Amino acid sequence: MGLALSKEGGRGVSHLGWTLGWSQGCSRPNLLPHSPLSTLKELREMIQLPGARPLLDPVDFLGLQDRIKEAPRPRKRLTELLLRTATEKPGVEEAARQALASRAWGLRFFRSPQQVLPSPDGQRAAGIRLAVTRLEGDGEATRAVPTGDTEDLPCGLVLSSVGYKSRPIDPSVPFDSKLGVIPHMEGRVVDVPGLYCSGWVKRGPTGVIATTMTDSFLTGQMLLQDLKAGRLPSGPRPGYVAIQALLSSRGVWPVSFSDWEKLDAEEVSRGQGAGKPREKLVDPQEMLQLLGR
Ligand SMILES: Cc1cc2nc3c(=O)[nH]c(=O)nc-3n(C[C@H](O)[C@H](O)[C@H](O)COP(=O)(O)OP(=O)(O)OC[C@H]3O[C@@H](n4cnc5c(N)ncnc54)[C@H](O)[C@@H]3O)c2cc1C
Predict the structure, then answer these.
(1) What is the model's pLDDT at position 143?
(2) Is 164 in the pocket of ligand 1 (CB under 6 A)?
(3) Which pLDDT value is given to residue 35?
(4) What is the pLDDT of residue 151?
(5) Residue 116 pairs with which residues in a beta bridge?
(6) Does ligand 1 lie within 6 Å of residue 212's CB atom?
(7) Which residues are 5's β-sheet partners?
(8) Where are the transmembrane segments (predicted)?
(9) How far away, in angstroms, is 77 Cα from ligand 1 center?
(10) pLDDT at 202
(11) Which atom of ligand 1 is nearest to the CA of 170?
């Protein structure tokens, strides 16, 4: 996902164009209008951003109403807000506000960045070339594939996002390196009974914390189902004591919750001096020093 800043031709309107997409070969359907892009609150704030108006192409939202019927509630509400913004005429007051707005921002879906286009002198960015994509497949197998068409978006600044990809944790845990996820059935890790996954390692880097939370509840439900059905190993387990002994045998000194509380108190106290809720400690060495290591 990236951000391209441009001015709309002749109208002096700054255009913040979010170009959602993936390079060719990587085709997670993260660039869809019904993928959670932000929290509902953030999207609402963007739509009502003072001095700015949203630009959304209604074509991107065709047939979306049906697709989101079964979606979890947070995702559904977010998508409905996008859909309304893209397809419904704003009320009189909002229309007047938008007419006066000197800036605009837009979300571009079904696009995959291909190339940054240089200015004639080759010194600056002049635009970004986007491959137009379409969806193929159903459900989890849905993929965005290039249609062969491209589109140039003029802009003066291109920011690329940091990206995110999970890595395998251990050879005993199956891992799909291409997608960066653990293969699973509703959170149950494939071929490893009693092991579960949730979050970005389960579904790839899509969604916000609320999405991850909902997803974890679903995995939790599977675990409880298995527990009730007697599919999990039972009997006393050594738990933390065994982990502590293992770490100690390897010379690892874990940071405990009370250690974290000490760091938290230190950050809060440093922040108070500067009139902030906290001053973040960012140096791990300093953190360890404060914990007496
Ligand atoms: C730049 C950025 C900004 C974001 N901003 C927002 C936002 O403003 N609001 C919002 O709601 N969401 C935001 N998100 C999304 C949010 O961060 C994710 O939805 C959420 O963190 C996913 O949770 P997770 O538990 O799956 O993964 P993570 O939060 O990445 O947690 C995985 C954990 O596993 C640990 N780990 C990895 N390997 C090992 C190992 N081998 N052994 C032990 N531990 C290991 C990692 O250190 C990490 O702590 C943002 C994401 C990014 C990348």
Answers:
(1) 76
(2) yes
(3) 60
(4) 93
(5) 128
(6) yes
(7) 16, 157
(8) none
(9) 23
(10) 95
(11) 41
- What token pair was written down for 165? 């990809």
Q: Which amino acid, one-letter code, is at 43? A: L
**What is the Cα–Cα distance from 216 to 219, expressed in whole angstroms?**
5
Alpha helices in the chain (DSSP H): 40-47, 64-67, 73-87, 92-100, 200-203, 209-228, 240-249, 257-273, 284-290
**pLDDT value at position 11?**
41
- pTM for the structure as a whole: 0.61
Residue located via tokens 């190993």:
233
- Ligand 1 pocket, mutate which of 18, 42, 200 (most atoms under 8 A from CB): 200
> What's the mean pLDDT in 148-171?
88
For ligand 1, the distance from its centroid to the CA atom of residue 9, given in whole angstroms, is 39
Total residues belonging to the chain: 293
Region at 110 (left for phi over 0; alpha for psi -120 to 50; beta for the rest)? left
**Ligand 1 pocket, 33 CB below 6 A?**
no
- Ligand 1 pocket test, pick from 209, 243, 252 with the greatest ligand atom count within 8 Å of Cβ, gives 209
- The average pLDDT across 47-72 equals 83
CA separation for the pair 175, 167 (Å, rounded): 8
Structure tokens at 118: 């240089």
- The structure tokens listed for 84 are 């309304």
253-278 pLDDT tens trace: 888 999 999 999 999 999 998 899 99
